[in-house]
């Protein structure tokens, strides 16, 4: 496919998304009806679509969208944002999009309002500013870019240096990431990872660097029993188990999310018990309970940009309620002297420090010993981790 034809495909997919389909669904539907498109075409089109979703407001404004964005406006805006003249690709020739109309060809505004330029929803700007202060503009600028591809090296199976060199032998370049001693930042050929023997035999996993840094903060040494209460796919369960031996118990309100965990654990040389709520209670107390709670995901909007635009004040309030509830229903599982680790991939104070402060007011006999927030400026996704210790009586 030509660059213009890829843009035309992205326009079609974005229009389908703007009409209500999830972006992944719209991409899959397009690929099914265009089987001639090769993997390189599909990857390039996907990049166009996700770039546009990350930068929805600014691209729409640069593309001259009136009220609501359209696929065409987004792609015209994307080209202008990259300093490329849209006329060179919107030629109408072959499979290229139709030439620009007179209104589309009008020069774009030169000074976009700050929330538009930063692709920040208006209602969220004050909340993000309250949380990030002067870091808001640089963090939101980074949020407009693609997320880095980062690996976690399974230290049970290899070392970071050996993994780096084995990857290089396969043509995959990676460099140590400063945020965690297990992290490698992939700088070349990330598309080769899925078929790499290192991935297939459990020596590496895809995992964000800040996510790994959070796991490195957990007091695992000497812990005999560890519960991952919101385990999901089990990324953090596996990362913990690769750091220190213990009995690892994984739970999730939606157990089907953990369906790949046994196979991933087997590949990684790790044992994990999957447990329902009754079993979680019967196995308590735990030395460490990890609560990687559901949240706005504001730290990972680069990877899931639809979530940035879908979040509403009502949904945020609902999430805060679930977070409170999870803290309240699990803290009794922690042994005296043990730790409740409260983690989000959010940068919003309302889901982080405010939740911890409110929990400490509700639950006497607990203290917060460590609290750290990561932003995109640290080199990974945005995360928050607070270690709450149950003071022995
Ligand atoms: C942030 S994700 C977990 C990601 C996972 N820890 C990882 O590292 O791959 C949050 C998870 O919490 C689960 N969840 C939501 N509400 C819950 C609840 N009340 N109790 C337990 N798990 C819950 C969701 O199903 C989701 O899988």
Automatic annotation (TrEMBL):
Q: Does the keyword Transferase apply?
A: yes
Binding residues for S-adenosyl-L-methionine, per the UniProt record? 252, 276, 292
Any idea which UniProt keywords this protein has? Methyltransferase, RNA-binding, S-adenosyl-L-methionine, Transferase
Q: Which residues does UniProt assign to the signal peptide?
A: none
Known InterPro entries for this protein? MeTrfase_RsmB-F_NOP2_cat, MeTrfase_RsmB-F_NOP2_dom, RCMT, RsmB-like_ferredoxin, SAM-dependent_MTases_sf
Q: Which Pfam families match?
A: Methyltr_RsmB-F, RsmF-B_ferredox
State the source organism's domain of life. Bacteria
Keyword Zinc listed? The answer is no
Molecular functions (GO terms)? RNA binding; RNA methyltransferase activity
Recorded hits in Gene3D superfamilies, A to Z, give: Sun protein, domain 3, Vaccinia Virus protein VP39
Residue limits of the SAM-dependent MTase RsmB/NOP-type domain? 139-393
**Record PROSITE patterns:** SAM_MT_RSMB_NOP
- Active site, per annotation: 345
Q: Which GO terms describe its biological process?
A: RNA methylation
| Family statement | Belongs to the class I-like SAM-binding methyltransferase superfamily. RsmB/NOP family.
What this protein is called in its record is RsmB/NOP family class I SAM-dependent RNA methyltransferase
Q: What is the lineage of its organism?
A: Bacteria, Pseudomonadati, Pseudomonadota, Alphaproteobacteria, Rhodobacterales
């Amino acid at each position: 496919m030509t660059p213009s034809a890829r843009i035309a495909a992205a326009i079609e997919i974005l229009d389908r998304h703007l009409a209500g389909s999830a972006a992944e669904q719209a991409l899959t539907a397009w690929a099914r009806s265009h089987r001639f498109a090769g993997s390189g075409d599909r990857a390039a089109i996907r990049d166009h679509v996700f770039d546009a979703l990350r930068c929805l407001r600014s691209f729409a404004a640069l593309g001259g969208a009136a009220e609501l964005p359209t696929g065409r406006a987004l792609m015209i805006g994307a080209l202008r944002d990259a300093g490329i003249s849209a006329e060179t690709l919107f030629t109408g020739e072959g499979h290229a999009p139709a030439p620009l109309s007179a209104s589309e060809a009008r020069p774009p505004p030169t000074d976009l309002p700050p929330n538009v330029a930063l692709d920040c929803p208006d209602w969220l700007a004050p909340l993000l500013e309250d949380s990030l202060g002067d870091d808001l503009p640089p963090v939101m600028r980074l949020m407009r870019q693609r997320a880095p591809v980062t690996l976690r090296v399974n230290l049970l199976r290899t070392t970071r240096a050996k993994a780096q060199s084995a990857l290089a032998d396969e043509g995959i370049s990676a460099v140590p990431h400063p945020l965690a001693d297990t992290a490698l930042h992939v700088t070349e050929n990330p598309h080769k990872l899925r078929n790499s023997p290192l991935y297939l035999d459990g020596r590496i996993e895809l995992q964000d660097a800040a996510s790994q840094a959070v796991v490195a903060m957990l007091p695992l040494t000497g812990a005999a029993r560890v519960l991952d209460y919101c385990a999901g796919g089990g990324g953090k369960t596996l990362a913990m188990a690769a750091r220190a031996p213990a009995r690892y118990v994984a739970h999730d309100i939606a157990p089907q999310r953990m369906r790949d965990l046994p196979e991933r654990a087997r590949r990684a040389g790790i044992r994990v018990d999957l447990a329902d709520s009754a079993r979680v209670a019967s196995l308590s107390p735990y030395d460490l309970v990890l609560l990687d709670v559901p949240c706005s995901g504001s730290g990972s909007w680069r990877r899931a940009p639809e979530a940035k635009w879908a979040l509403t004040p009502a949904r945020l309030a609902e999430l805060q309620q679930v977070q409170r509830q999870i803290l309240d229903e699990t803290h009794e599982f922690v042994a005296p002297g043990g730790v409740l680790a409260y983690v989000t991939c959010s940068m919003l104070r309302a889901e982080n420090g405010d939740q911890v402060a409110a929990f400490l007011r509700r639950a006497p006999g607990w203290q917060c010993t460590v609290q750290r927030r990561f932003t995109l400026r640290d080199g990974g996704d945005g995360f928050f981790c607070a270690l709450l210790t149950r003071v022995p009586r």
